[in-house]
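FIELD: query
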Amino acid sequence: MALLESYIFGRVLRMFLAALIPVLAIIWTTQVLSRINLVTDSGQSIGSFFLLATYLLPTIIPVVLPFAMVIGVTQTLQTMNNDSESAVIDSAGAPRSLIYRPVLVLAGLLCIVSFSTDNFVEPESRLGMRQTIAATYADLLSTVIEEKAFRRIDDGLYVQISERLQGRVLKGLFVADSRDPRFEMLYYAREGAVDEKGGTLIMRDGEIHRKPIGGNVSVIHFDSYSFDLSELSETRGQAKLRATDRDLGFLFHPDPKDPDYMEKPLEYRAELHRRLTDWFFPVTFALASLALAGGAHSHRERGVHPLIPALIFAFAFRWSAFFFANRIESPSGSPTPLYIFVVVINLLLVWAIYRNSQYLGKHRPLTDLAKILNSGWSRLRGPRTHNTGASE
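FIELD: result
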């Protein structure tokens, strides 16, 4: 890069990072806090919490990158206009490509980062996150050891104990089970214990209250009763893989025997085409910024900061692409509208930049070529003119 291009690249990069880091931190914090109950309720350590937070980070980077790009580019170009730097560059006869090139180079680098994160890093982090969440439920005993507190084990299943003794003995057991929509079950027991494998809760000296929907309560007394936890433990202890957890190779050639793929094949198709288009968004947003703020002008010419229409375009484009990607999941959906939409918008942005360059009179390839030829001819004639002058 030339010195001026490096200067513009550095300014855009610094403004991009200044926009990326705070937005990324805010979104990451909100996502982490929404899952903090999962760790605290299951008795996990602070290390598990930070591990889960680390897995969340790659899932939001590809979403934030394009928006940070449009903020960084638009704000940098507007600042250069306000400081008359763009006017000086134009007055010096520099081509508009001198401003466009560093912006597009940064956008291209971000496309590589977005593609790598979206297709290789994010699937692994999602898998690790699901495995961490599954591990918090694998040991159900850890969720019932706290005394005199109700703990939700599963949707519709709550457990409470009065006291925990040595030898895995639990005193004062209460279990509320409403997972079956046909009836509700309440279990009371003086004492109980979870076996070493964590698959069975054995209750002694208690009773069961069974209430059908709209019916009367029936009470059953028992000396010993086994409450099966194995199915719950196995379900929660496994990390079920979904389309967003798969790498790009699997999306291109999915296993026809995969249970989740057999259940939702259209979701895998939509995920594939979403990944094949989302990685290019940094370039699209960079083109939008160049079209809106790339021309030299006085700050008195604008009543609205170009960042506002740039962000409006960014959100509208992102939601439209999201809409077309979701349409692929329908039986009659096709990926063609998604690709047409992305290609047409990028071509329109390129056309808008070209028109701006024409309007500013900076796109003169024939004039530039003539200047180059004239400069070369002057250099060739320079020594002859000098020698003639000396002899006179």
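FIELD: remark
The beta strands are 151-154, 157-160, 163-165, 169-177, 183-194, 200-212, 218-228.
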